[in-house]
Amino acid sequence: MSDKLWGGRFTKNESQSALEFNASIDFDKRLYRQDIAGSRAHAAMLARCGIISQEDADAIDKGLEGILHDIEDGKIEFTIDNEDIHMNIESILTERIGQPGKRLHTARSRNDQVAVDFRMWTREAVEKTMEDLKRLMHSIYNRAEAGQDVIMPGYTHLQRAQPVTFAFYMMAYFEMFKRDYSRFSDCLTRMNENPLGAGAMSGTGYATDREYLTKKLGFNRTCANAMDAVSDRDYALEFLSSASICAMHLSRFCEELILWSSAEFSFIEIDDAYSTGSSIMPQKKNPDMAELIRGKTGRVYGDMMTLFTIMKGLPLAYNKDMQEDKPPVFDAYDTLSACINIFADMLDTLTVKSDNMEKAASKGFTNATDAADYLVSKGVPFRECHAIIGEIVLYCISHDKSIEELSLDQLQDFAPEFDEDVYQRIDIRSCVKAKKSEGSTSFESVKNMLSDSKTYLDSLNN
After folding, report:
1. How many Cβ atoms from other residues are within 10 Å of residue 294's Cβ?
2. Among 2, 53, 278, 377, which one carries the catalytic annotation?
3. Does residue 1 have a pLDDT over 60?
4. Please, which residues have CB within 8 angstroms of residue 434's CB and are 6 or more apart in sequence?
5. Is the Cβ–Cβ distance between 147 and 166 less than 8 Å?
6. Could you confirm whether 278 is annotated as catalytic?
7. Which of 72, 88, 172, 358 meets the CB 3.0–4.6 Å disulfide criterion with 151?
8. What does pTM read for this prediction?
9. Beta-bridge partner residues of 162
10. What integer is the mean pLDDT of 87-96?
11. For 234-256, b where at least 16 C-beta lie within 10 A, e where not — what string?
């Protein structure tokens, strides 16, 4: 007969290669705190319902508390023979307290046990990610607040388009991470359901109290269908999806910083603490942290696709394939958390070269749209204005001039509606100030964005 806890109907043990292939303790040992918390709640519920004695429940609870302390003190070595974290802890418990330990698994399956462990772990990962995002949003807010008066070129197609403030640019990313925070918050709301008590897939014949378990483990509600409870991994997929979108935002931001730190842009300098050098070229200062974040985004995408692929063809209810759900989620969380925090550190310490930014904004005809709007204000239809300014730009390119360098006579050769006030209108700072629409780059608009964002950040701490 097999010597496994589940081995009663087997005549021999699995082969060594099958044992190694089947075991998950190398990665699911990260669930030890959640497994012990779930087991302590389950034992308390069994005693409360009269399924086991209070004496046995107390012995189980004390035994599990001791195991928790010993794990955290590094005194316990898990074994591959016990396959996973659940059976490792149960075996150690039984060795320590005897018969009461054998009663712990009453009215429970490893299917609902792993479901509750993994759900609690992912819930905690989401909460920690939200804390990381709050820290990042504070960093972005601080950079924006300090950069309200800094003018830089805004881009479309990576071509200079219109002048904007550095604060406006930063607040665009603030909005992205604000949406990320909201996505994780929504994910947390949906995932906070208790699967424990569902049994293997159809419930249990014992008169248990699942609502007690739900409250004890901090869930908002109980999973309504036992089959869905043990087979659902939507919460993990939703976490990975949210993590992938967040990583994409980090990657886009890093791409900007990498470009801006180049000699061709020279808009910022990344602090030495977040840069590296070349093994052969002594002059090099490479934005490696930003590049690594950009690269690790693909890793998070891979984690998401791994779990989607695992789940896509599984029939109900639990299947062993689902043992592979944890490595991609663990990896995505670790990767995203590291990326968010190193990025926030990098952002806090970078140097903004405001003079270079404003010089760049003054080139590339970023005031061309404002010149067209000036003619609109003089009664010229916009499409005619567009054509006129296009001709002026073409003339300026061929004569190596900017629009504001042309004399009034030269401008009037293209359109008699031009007057002396055009030079004030197409001044770079005037272009920024002139924006009137809500959400624009104008100094007043950005000031309002910062005020609203401060209120939002304060609300997250209440």
Report:
1. 21
2. 278
3. no
4. 370, 373, 425, 442
5. yes
6. yes
7. 358
8. 0.94
9. 154
10. 97
11. ebbbbbbbbbbbbbbbbbebbeb
Output the six-digit token pair for 239.
Answer: 């976490």
d(CA 129, CA 17): 38
Give just the sign of the alpha carbon dihedral 214, 218, 220, 223.
negative
Q: How many folded domains does the chain comprise?
A: 3
Q: Let me know whether 421 and 333 are in one domain.
A: no
Mind listing the pLDDT tens digit for each residue in 423-457? 999 999 999 999 999 999 999 999 999 999 999 99
CATH number of the domain encompassing residue 23: 1.10.275.10
- Whole domain around residue 22: which residue ranges? 14-106
Residues linked to residue 163 through DSSP beta bridges, in sequence order: 153
Residues ≥6 apart with Cβ < 8 Å to 289: 270, 274, 275, 342, 343, 346
**18 and 164 share one domain:** no
- The residue from 157, 279, 407, 437 that is catalytic is 157
Is residue 69 flagged as an active site residue? no
Asked if 118 contacts 237 with a C-beta cutoff of 8 angstroms, the reply is no
Residue-wise pLDDT tens digits, 140-161: 999 999 999 999 999 999 999 9
Contact, 344 vs 271, CB < 8 A? no
Nearest of 122, 120, 85, 115 to residue 196 by alpha carbon: 115
DSSP result, 330-360: HHHHHHHHHHHHHHHHHHHHPEE-HHHHHHH
Residue pointed to by tokens 């904007």:
164
Higher-confidence residue of 215 and 9: namely 215
What is the residue type of 245?
Answer: I
At 449 the three-state DSSP class reads helix
- Residue 388: enclosing H or E segment and its boundaries? helix 382-398
What are the Cα distances from residue 454, in Å, to 44, 142, 171? 44, 10, 12
Report DSSP state, residue 276: B
Query: Would you state the structure tokens that stand for residue 209, as one six-digit string?
Result: 């109290």
| Cβ atoms 230, 200 nearer than 8 A | yes
